[in-house]
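Sequence only, no structure available. Ideas?
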Amino acid sequence: MIYKSPPVGSLIFSCMDGINEELIKNNTKLEEILYSALKEDNFNILKELRQDFDPYGLTLVAILAESHAIIHTFPEYGSLTFDLYSCRGLVMEEKRMIFSKK
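Reply:
I predicted one. Tokens follow.
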């Protein structure tokens, strides 16, 4: 038997470069941006995990009732990756840049 995943989920994945150095090194601000964007779009946050790296860098994981959201920063390159998967049927065109607009 071959397992087939139901076609109900939506994935947004973005690699962002050229992020302002002050912002990319401000882990608290990035955390505020992520969680305010998730709350603004009515995601249900079940658990949060934050790992700060020395001298700088951040990984944030939000376990959502709808699936997950993850941020990884690479301050030495001015870049950030953002991953949001949702099984609630996002309208992708309308939701694609929730985080990047912040």
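The chain is about 25% helix and 35% strand.
Hope that gets you unstuck.
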